[in-house]
């Protein structure tokens, strides 16, 4: 039944090469996610109707925050990968920690890095941590979508073995076993990117930004759910394999997100939407 397999597209992981300098699709995914997310965040801040009044931060502040969140993503993502996914290797090869171009970033580490960036920036600028978290997570699915597509282009983080009769099963060129596999990168792009962005965008249009923490909590909860579902189709990292109870590292790191997200949503509902200020006549 191998004739049913889809040939893996022959992508070049390098998008642009100028002399000795090469720009990879993975780098462009990060850059594109940050830039498009920044533009979307500005559009949300300009729409006072979504906030029930003036936005809790200025456009200049969100412009300044971009550098902070970028550092949070990169430093947190790399630190998370080192600690969660390949610590023994990096203990033996500490210099490899800084070779980001060789790959190895963790969403959960990047998310924690963003949390630190949000809390620090909000404190220094007198901004609501929850509202800044809302705007940050509202745009996050854009980067997740582009990042998963870059994973697919690179032919990395492929899925678990699938029946060859699965119409969209693929044999990834970098897979030494040459087994038909789920294109789990595309599953994750659909769930973590398109689905999550759509749900949050609808919630925003329905007034969720008026309840600080609602979008933040919903992002954490829904991402945790979609990541756990996606991990059922994704091949575990070879250096880790399956862990306790047949769970993967991605599942274990996502389980606490279900609890945290639920708590934030309940708190946002109980807190209620802030009442618009009334002028004294």
UniProtKB/TrEMBL annotation:
Pfam family, one: LGT
PROSITE patterns from the UniProt entry: LGT (PS01311)
Subcellular location as annotated: Cell membrane
Pathway: Protein modification; lipoprotein biosynthesis (diacylglyceryl transfer)
GO CC annotation terms, alphabetical: plasma membrane
Residue numbers binding a 1,2-diacyl-sn-glycero-3-phospho-(1'-sn-glycerol): 148
Alphabetical UniProt keywords: Cell membrane, Lipoprotein, Membrane, Transferase, Transmembrane, Transmembrane helix
Record-stated family: Belongs to the Lgt family.
Function: Catalyzes the transfer of the diacylglyceryl group from phosphatidylglycerol to the sulfhydryl group of the N-terminal cysteine of a prolipoprotein, the first step in the formation of mature lipoproteins.
Protein name: Phosphatidylglycerol--prolipoprotein diacylglyceryl transferase
Source organism: Bradyrhizobium manausense
Name of the encoding gene: lgt
């Amino acid at each position: 039944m191998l004739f049913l397999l889809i040939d893996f597209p022959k992508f070049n992981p390098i998008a642009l090469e100028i002399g000795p300098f090469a720009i990879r699709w993975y780098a462009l995914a990060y850059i594109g996610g940050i830039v498009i997310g920044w533009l979307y965040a500005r559009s949300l801040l300009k729409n006072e109707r979504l906030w029930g009044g003036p936005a809790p931060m200025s456009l200049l502040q969100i412009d300044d925050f971009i550098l902070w969140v970028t550092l949070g993503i990169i430093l947190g993502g790399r630190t998370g990968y080192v600690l969660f996914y390949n610590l023994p290797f990096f203990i033996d090869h500490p210099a490899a920690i800084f070779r980001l171009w060789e790959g190895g970033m963790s969403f959960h580490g990047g998310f924690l890095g963003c949390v630190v960036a949000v809390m620090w920036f909000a404190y220094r600028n007198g901004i609501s941590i929850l509202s800044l978290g809302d705007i940050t997570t509202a745009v996050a699915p854009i980067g997740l979508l582009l990042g998963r597509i870059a994973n697919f282009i690179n032919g990395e983080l492929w899925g678990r073995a699938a029946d060859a009769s699965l119409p969209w099963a693929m044999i990834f060129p970098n897979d030494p076993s040459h087994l038909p596999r789920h294109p789990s990168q595309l599953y994750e792009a659909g769930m973590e990117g398109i689905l999550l962005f759509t749900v949050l965008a609808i919630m925003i249009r329905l007034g969720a930004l008026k309840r600080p923490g609602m979008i933040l909590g919903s992002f954490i909860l829904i991402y945790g759910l979609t990541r756990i579902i996606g991990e059922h189709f994704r091949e575990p990292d070879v250096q880790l394999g399956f862990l306790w109870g047949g769970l993967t590292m991605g599942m274990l790191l996502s389980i606490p997100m279900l609890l945290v997200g639920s708590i934030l949503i309940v708190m946002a509902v109980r807190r209620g939407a802030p009442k618009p200020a009334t002028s004294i006549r």
